[in-house]
Amino acid sequence: MTVLSNPSADGNELTIKIEGRFDFSAHQEFRDCYENLGKDPSEYVIDMQSTSYLDSSALGMLLLLRDHAGGDGSEIKIVNCNDDVKKILTISNFEQLFQIQ
Amino acid sequence: MLNAQPLRILIADDNNTDRMILAKIVSRMGHEVLSAKDGMEAVARFREEHPELILLDALMPNMDGMEAARIIKKEAGDELIPIIFLTSLADDAELANCLASGGDDFLSKPYSRTILEAKIGAFARMRDMHKTLKTQHDQIALHNQHMLREQKVAMEVFQNVTQGKKMSAPNFKVMQSPFAIFNGDIVLTAYTPSGGMYVLLGDFTGHGLPAAIGAMPMAEIFYGMVGKGFTMREILSEVNLKLQKVLPIGFFCCACMIDMNFTEQTLEVWNGGLPDCFLYRSKNHSIDAVASTHLPLGVLGAQKFSDNTEVYQLEQGDRFFMWSDGIFEARSEDEELFGEERLREVFLQNEDTSLLFDQVKQAVTDFMGESLRDDDISMAEVVLVDLETLGDRQVAYAGSSLVGPTDWKVSFELGVETLKAFNPLPLMVHNLMETPGLRRHNTNIYTLLSELYSNALEHGVMGLDSGLKSDAAGFAQYYLKRTQAQTELEEGFVRFTFTHKPNKNGGKLVIAVDDSGPGFDYVSKIDVALEQQKGFCGRGIPLISNLVDSVVYKGEGNSVEVVYSWTNNDK
Predict the structure, then answer these.
(1) Cβ B325–A91 below 8 Å, yes or no?
(2) ipTM
(3) Is the Cβ pair A92, B293 closer than 8 Å?
(4) Which residue in chain A is spatially nearest to B255 when comparing CA positions?
(5) pLDDT tens across B156-169, in order?
(6) For A99, how many CA atoms within 13 A lie in the half-sphere containing its CB?
(7) B86: helix, coil or strand?
């Protein structure tokens, strides 16, 4: 599991890419991606292209990010999910909280 | 000249001259010297004076260096006592033997002061490092022990909360693997005063403490509110609100809750975050999958939380299955997942529905084989049976006082805002139950009030036609219309007037209900209703008639009075 983060040039958008299993072991790395940035981005993109699996603690981490990004006013996109990942997000009805593409 | 801190060093050599030379060199470096002239004495001095480093001659009388090293290393245990062998041996095998017996290094005769100093320095550093590591290791072990103990306490609390009121009912089966309980799976069950059964299956994220913290208010709210006659939707809203307040962000509870009503033969389901539940139809052996349509409990605030449920009309023998995702994600030895297809296959193969639950259990167990470490499964089955099969149901009433009023009259007029948004039954039942003796009848009273209220509201105030409910499609349509009519309600009232008089061994409760509707032609309709008890509609009035002494409609039909006599001997 690796977490890569890539802010846009103007710092307004942050892309976080998770490779492999997205579970509790990613906790610290995931948080480090968005905490203590010089400038808080207005939009976040979670790229799940290389994410093989996510468990309920990963759902919890997404909620933490959402809270950090302003809760109901946050702009977070989750993109490139495979079918397994999408299914877990759908069962939990996370499309009500995140833009899932 | 001393580089390292002074150490207590034991020198064991049978040759007096060699020993004295070495002692001189070492003490000049600033270290404290202990001496021994054979292996036996070396071991004795080690036991008494705990040297921090040992210089040991390999060949000595009584006990040689190898044997002494073995004993010392064994007794030192976790502590690092470096042993440097003093030797003139040149044979490789002999030298290797020194190391095998526990030695850490050699020093060849004749001694070089520089080499000796360097080696003592190196071993002193190694000792310090070892000491630091050991302290850290001990701290971690201690923390781990603390954590395990706390987890055990959390788990016990969790078990007390969730296992305390396990229901045994002929139509209910539940299975929880030990690991599932540890992982924060919860199953709550209770009979409702209105003759139904509530089952809630939840799966908390995070095990141990967070799960235990969430489980406590959840169980309290569930059992407390069921006893007072609150609806499933009200209970879910309350639980959600509580969890959202109590649990840190990122922790929540995936849950499914059902209300199975045995008199109405209906099933109401709310699923937030658990995998598809199965409603297995006994008649044509088909499966209606009930998908999660909500976020898990504890995520959304009260404003955004949705308590919308789905209502299904059931027939005798229909079975509802709910489970945690553990069943879909059960792994075989080849790391394959059990999955929905295999689960459906079990249902397809089944020939005796009463065995279904055990067959599902067996199929998953067989599939996992030896890989039971992942065993994290909770599953429950609830069957629609008739009331006789169900037998005696104990509904716990939450009240507690032993004395109360016996001779009284009270009236509730429910205005339009109440009718639109509030369930007044718990409030009324709660008041009636203050009468001693009457609280044992709370199931009957609740049923009466609930039927009378829905008749007055739905057919009276809102003017809905119960004939709509004559088939399954109409049934769903009816509930849709009901919700719509309730939201759009602009005027109307329902008035309950209760009069209670005690008698020798019980009492008589008269319930009068008036509504703002136009009334109905009760003379011709009641008889019809009493005859067609089998359909989807028209069950309310016959149900009421069975429970009370008399039902009398008055005036335009928008006023009804029922008389309920009870004695302390009634069951």
Answers:
(1) yes
(2) 0.84
(3) no
(4) A92
(5) 777 777 665 667 78
(6) 8
(7) strand
What chain A holds in terms of domains, given with CATH numbers, is: 2-100 (3.30.750.24)
Structure tokens at B538: 């028209």
Residue ranges of chain A whose CB lies within 8 Å of a chain B CB = 56-57, 59-61, 63-64, 67, 90-94, 96-97
Can you give the pLDDT at residue B69? 94
The pTM of this model reads: 0.67
Q: What is the pLDDT of residue B535?
A: 47
- Candidates A23, A52, A56: best to mutate against B (most CBs of B within 10 A) is A56
Q: What is the DSSP string of B465-534?
A: -GGGGGSHHHHHHHHHHHHHHHHH--S--EEEEEEEEEETTEEEEEEEEEESS----HHHHHHHHHH-TT
Domains observed in chain B: 8-133 (3.40.50.2300), 164-390 (3.60.40.10), 408-567 (3.30.565.10)
Which among B163, B232, B235 is positioned nearest to B197, based on CA atoms? B232
Tell me the per-residue pLDDT of B39-75, one tens digit each, with 9 for 90 and over: 999 999 999 999 999 999 988 988 999 999 999 999 9
Contact B205 A63 (CB under 8 A): no
Rg (CA), chain A: 12
- Class of residue B78 by CB neighbours under 10 A (exposed 0-12, middle 13-18, buried 19+): exposed
Centre a 10 Å sphere on the Cβ of residue B90 and count the other Cβ atoms it contains.
8
